[in-house]
Amino acid sequence: MRMNNIKAVVVTGCDSGIGYGICSALLRKNYFVIAGCYTKQGIKKVKKLYKSVFSSGDVSSYPSNRSDSTKDSMDIVNNHESDNLDHIIGQKKDDTGNLNEHLNSINTKRNVYRMGNRGMIMRLDVTSEESVKELSSLVKELIDTKQIPSLYSLINNSGIWRFSSLKECWNGDKLIESEVEEELERWKLVMETNLMGSVRVSLRLLPFLARYEGFARIIFITSVVDETGVPGQSSYVSSKFALRGFHESLMHELEGTNIATVTVAPGALSDTCLFDYDFKLNKEYRLNDTHRLKNGMKILKKLGSSSKGVVKTVLKALESKRPRRYYRSTSGTFLFKLMKLFPKSLYIKIAKLILLNFEHIYTSLPLLTKLIRLVLK
Fold it and tell me: Biased composition, Basic and acidic residues: where in the chain (predicted)?
């Protein structure tokens, strides 16, 4: 494959769930993937993914005939299971497209791994300005050394979720200071990751997207709750509202350029790790309704759909000549769309009623549970 035909895509949050699924799909579609992972475990997981995709023959390498030295280099990289991430293995490509195996000594503290000739993995913390600068430097380096012509797309997928009930912060007419401080810390972390993380990465990579000879695109993985709230996740909902606002602002700012900005809004998903931290957290709550609400959220996740539908929608946004600005037809969104048809006051009452009683519905009313499962799919 000629270098001008290479489509390079940066994906953040590839450790698990949607990001991992996107990374897997893009490899099989012959994209050059720059995968950002936050954890060492995530990096190992994506390394194994690269190896399995290459060995399965699902991906054609470029150049089309890989040399033995290239294959050996790929195997060395993928078999490297050290927890020491201060290590780079790279391959440079000359102007004819041939790969020359070598150890890349550009910056041995960058935490970057070269996976054959199909992409890179780097340790990325979107809340860190230095980490995002390293990502920007990596993309620039790949362009300057003609390993990719420019950047085709950025997929802002990194995100976290935190459960809370704001009513835990006061008792009668008195604030509970410890709960207020804990809630504010949750908000800071969620906003720094979900909103500011996407802002940081987008601003740093926009110049490389502008250099693409064609129609580049920024894709934001938002949520079905980016335009309608639900109880128990105020910080997450607010971050997704804000992320949609950033997307809409970019639509205006980038009008007349070659860059489109797109949102993909998943619904309830059963195979995401997004909720794991809070669901495993053994926190005691003052209010019984808070316990019921959290248990209801657990059931909602259990009844959710697969992230495969979200990945397909992302691919559609990537491969359409003129992608839509909003993709709301992903799996798990139907129930939320249905609820939006009700007056807001009625929607609030229904959402609270369902979530507070979800555990009872799930264990005692199988027919209703089956119906809810169907509309969540």
Answer: 68-77
- Closest to 273 in 3D by CA, of 171, 157, 181: 157
Q: How far apart are CA 301 and CA 304, in angstroms?
A: 5
Helices (H) and strands (E) in the chain, counts: 14, 12
What tokens appear for 188 in the block?
Answer: 């800071």
Q: Which residue has the tokens 């000594």?
A: 105
Per residue in 247-289, pLDDT tens? 999 999 999 999 999 999 998 888 888 888 888 888 899 999 9
CATH of residue 210: 3.40.50.720
Q: How far apart are CA 50 and CA 121, in angstroms?
A: 10
Is residue 353 included in any domain, yes or no? no
118: which DSSP letter? T
- For the chain, what is the domain count? 1
Q: Does any domain span residue 298?
A: no
- Residue 26 within any structural domain of the chain: yes
Strand locations in the chain (E): 8-11, 32-37, 90-93, 99-102, 112-115, 119-123, 151-156, 170-171, 174-175, 216-221, 259-264, 326-327
Contacts 24+ apart (CB under 8 A), 361-370: 361/299, 362/299, 362/302, 362/303, 369/303
Cβ atoms < 10 Å from Cβ of 233: 24
Which pTM was predicted? 0.83
Rounded Cα–Cα distance for residues 197 and 322 (Å): 26
Q: Do 123 and 131 form a contact (C-beta atoms < 8 A)? A: yes
Q: Is residue 370 part of a domain?
A: no
User: Cα 199 to chain center, whole Å?
Assistant: 14
Between CA 262 and CA 176 the distance in angstroms is: 41
Structural domain that includes position 88: 3-281+306-331
For 151, list phi and psi in degrees, rounded to 5: -100, 125
Cα end-to-end span (Å), the chain: 38
CB 18 within 8 A of CB 221: yes
